[in-house]
Amino acid sequence: MRQVEVRAQRESTAPTEKEGNWLINRRQLDRYGQGSGQITPVLSSIPNVQFDEERFDDDSLVDLRPPSVSIAGGRIYENNFTLDGFSVNSRFDPGKGSGLGSEPPRQDQGLFLDLDLIDSVEVWQSNVPAEYGRFLGGVVNMETRRHGATPETYLSARRTQGDWVKSRVFQLPPEPGVERAPVGEPDFRRSRYTVRHSRPISDTAGIVAAFALAESSTPLLVVNQTEQQTQRNLNLFLKHSQAFFNGLESDTSLIWAPFEQTGYLPTYLDSEYQFTGGGLSLGNKLRFVTNRARKVQFDTNLSTRESNREGPRDGFSWAVTASKPWGANVETGLSHIGGTGSLERFEQSASSKLKISEPARTFSGSVMQVSYGTEAIYSQVGYERPSTSRQYSSALKNPDIDCRGSVVDCVDNEQYFTRRRVYEADNVDVTLLEAGLFSEMSFAWPRFEATFGLRGDYNDYTRNVDIAPRSRFSVDLAGDRRSLLVFGANRYYGGSLITYRLREARRPAYGESRGATQNIVNDWERAAQQSEEIYRSNDLKTPYSDELTIGLRQHFLGGVASIDLLQRRNRDQFSSETTDILQDGFRVIMLNNDGHSEYESVSLGWDRSWSTGTHAGITLTWSESSSTNESYDDSLGDVSTSPYVWYRGQRMRSSAVEVLRQNFARPLVGNFRISQDLAKTLQVGVVLEYLGSHDNVIETGNITITGPDGQPEILPVLTDTNTPRRILANANIKWTPWPRHRFSLLLDVENIANARTYSVPVGARGVEIGRRFWLGMDYAF
Question: Above 60 in pLDDT, residue 10?
């Protein structure tokens, strides 16, 4: 007789065992997910998860890319996002950046997935099993939908726009001689459409096919002309599930998720550019049980991703003259035209993972369980600049200049450029091999459980063999599995930074300069001192995190409560050090292991589901996080040579200023959520978020002082500041007037009370988003 595996989702979000994993199932995704369809916002209900302070700025109204998160104090690129067990992290400089300079845009996730494709989201933040590696923050695993027992088709459409958003506009008081463009309320359109069909195709097989499209547009004033900036994110998903003989099961899934963005440089004429990203993923999961009752899981995946920019090859910053007049009303006072050139980057990877779980055995009065496995990832990352790009600056007016026939970078009897930065055409690629072994052994006595694990990782970039011990324990305090004391000690190693290997292989940009002799323009010559850098690394260690945790799992008021104390000590983290100018005129940026960070937290959680359809949960996290640097690009060398700053009326080394993390670091974060089915026609979900105020030190400008040598010295000014607390309430309402026909009207309200988000700091100018509505409808049959 064929064995059928029944998969039942855990109803409790909070962890019930010694592992620190929080689960958001499909029911909760439906009740608390936002109209945007982005996945990371639903993680706000998880302790030790923090969001970017820019999450609520006005750009978020049209940005289809998911907001970044920090888990357990890790940086945004130190998490491991996986889809059906395989990484969807971005290898393309996974920090943050606009993508308008020498690099395409940066993003920590490589695929932007619609929430409708996902069946559950599991977040591991402490006591993470040995089968998970290459992270210093947390692990977020998204499982895609599987077919149901009966055919189903689902259609959905949602929309929001500028006049459905309440906003606050902050202007600065006028200053003599200073002209500022007025700040206006947001004008945009954003929509999201999904189509999904699932069905069994035999007694042992079924399919899911889905289409999801998100689009946004907003006008942008570009040198006195209005242009439309647009974004488009498409998801095509197909999954086939098959049960074979002897318990063999197979899931094969294909996801194509391209992303497109069209934009402009606001002060540049003819500056239209296109970003393209996303990619394709093909994966298979095999599960079976051997004759000796071993459970075997073998997963394979092939994926390709891209991050490209297409735009004008050269950029010019002309002086405002009769032939170049358009910059007269631009804040820069220059007539800009063009762009920063086209770039293409790609990543191709092949992954496999094998996990074997031995049958339980008795050992010294305990039940012993052993699991072990291996995984390997081979990646190739490439970079291409198809043509040489030049950025011209320092235009010099000269009514007698002779351009010698050059019309690109010179205007006869008017002006000529004296400097330019050259990005030569380039085409390079690098490879990376990562391999890992893991094993765990668990012992269960009537009231005590212990798990000992070990994970070993190797990659051919740092060429380190990293051994990470994992251990976690639980004590059944009352002998009824209702009160568990849990504790653990673990080490996690981060992933390799393949983007740096790619940087090292690329040609560096360089500067050129020229003058004029007797009003005749000279030829371009390579500048003696370069403003650009080359990248190098040597004898790198792998960053690691040592974790200690203790907690309590308690059945309470019909639900599950948890209390956890977490401590992370992150060491050997990547940072940079810049050398003086070398003989070839370049500076060298060396990647080093001088970075470190600390994270401590106390978190509380409670979660309960009722048979009536009601769900309620609450989490509260107090944390303190400090870090020497925010990313691997931050310069951090010898403390005695760190730059001087001006702080509290004194000139001092920046390393002497005790700076807590400025972002992803609210000390007190809370989340309360409740959902209720009212009869058969109305479903309501409400989420209340609290973010406590935050004291910090930020850079607010520059000051010129008299240095120790008696000469003027310009120093950055560091100022103590406070970011006010933030309290926001969101609601999701689904009304099904005719339940038999399964047609519903949808209303999502974000920031119900129109509370301040403080995305515009006190005393600054800008637009702050308030109450926001999404309207939609869906139909299932």
Answer: no
Q: How far apart are CA 170 and CA 314, in angstroms?
A: 36
Q: What are the pLDDT digits (tens) for 163-204?
A: 999 999 888 777 665 556 667 788 999 999 999 999 999 999
What pLDDT shows up at residue 4? 38
- Residue type at position 445: W
Residue 660, both tokens:
């807590």
Nearest to 564 by CA among 12, 15, 43: 15
Residue 745 near residue 140 (C-beta atoms within 8 A) = no
Q: Please, are residues 608 and 616 in contact by the beta-carbon 8 Å criterion?
A: yes
Distance separating alpha carbons of residues 277 and 305, to the nearest angstrom: 7
Q: What is the DSSP letter of 656?
A: G
User: How far is it, in rounded angstroms, from Cα 164 to Cα 158?
Assistant: 13
For 532, other C-beta atoms within 10 Å of its C-beta total 16
Strand boundaries in 426-543, DSSP class E? 426-444, 448-459, 465-476, 483-493, 510-513, 516-517, 520-521, 525-526, 533-537
CA distance 527 to 515: 12
- Asked whether 196 and 116 are in contact (CB, 8 A), the reply is yes
**Count of Cβ atoms closer than 10 Å to residue 220 Cβ:** 14
Are residues 132 and 138 in contact, defined by beta-carbon separation less than 8 angstroms?
no
Bridge partners (DSSP) listed for residue 492: 545
The token duo for 774 is 């999404």
Beta bridge partners of 337: 269, 316
Q: What is the pLDDT of residue 474?
A: 97
Secondary structure of residue 657 in the 3-state scheme: coil
Give a three-class secondary structure readout of 729-761. EEEEEEEEEECCCCEEEEEEEECCCCCCCCCCC
Of 430, 587, 564, 601, which Cα lies nearest the Cα of 503? 430
Q: Residue 468's CB: how many other CB atoms inside 10 A?
A: 22
Query: CB neighbours (10 Å) of residue 753?
Result: 11
Closest CA to 48 of 736, 623, 748: 623
Strands 225-243 and 205-222: antiparallel
Structure tokens, 746: 């949808």
CB atoms within 10 A of CB 226: 9
C-alpha span between 776 and 164 (Å, rounded): 13
Six-digit token pair at 652? 């001092």
Q: Is 246 helix (H, G, I), strand (E, B) or coil?
A: helix
In this structure, how many other beta carbons lie within 10 angstroms of the beta carbon of residue 98?
10
Rg (CA), the chain: 28
479 Ramachandran zone, left/alpha/beta (phi>0; psi -120 to 50): left
Residue with tokens 């310009």: 714
CA distances from 446 to 443, 476, 479 (A): 10, 8, 8
Q: Do strands 615-627 and 644-647 pair parallel, antiparallel, or not at all (unpaired)?
A: unpaired
Closest CA to 85 of 249, 253, 242: 253
Closest CA to 445 of 362, 372, 370: 362
CB 696 within 8 A of CB 664: no
Residue 597 one-letter amino acid: S
CB within 8 Å of 438: residues ≥ 6 apart: 130, 131, 133, 372, 373, 374, 375, 453, 454, 455, 456
Environment class of 27 (CB within 10 Å of its CB; exposed 0-12, middle 13-18, buried 19+): middle
For position 5, what pLDDT does the model report?
42
pLDDT category of residue 97 using cuts at 50, 70 and 90 = low
Segment 280-302 mean pLDDT:
94
By C-alpha distance, which of 617, 552, 760 is closest to 32? 617
> For 424, what's the count of Cα atoms within 13 Å in the CB-facing half-sphere?
11
Contact 748, 730 (CB under 8 A): yes
The secondary structure element, H or E, covering residue 28 is helix 26-32
What residues contact 603, with CB distance under 8 A and at least 6 apart? 47, 48, 562, 563, 564, 566, 619, 620, 621, 622
Q: What percent of the chain has pLDDT over 70?
A: 93
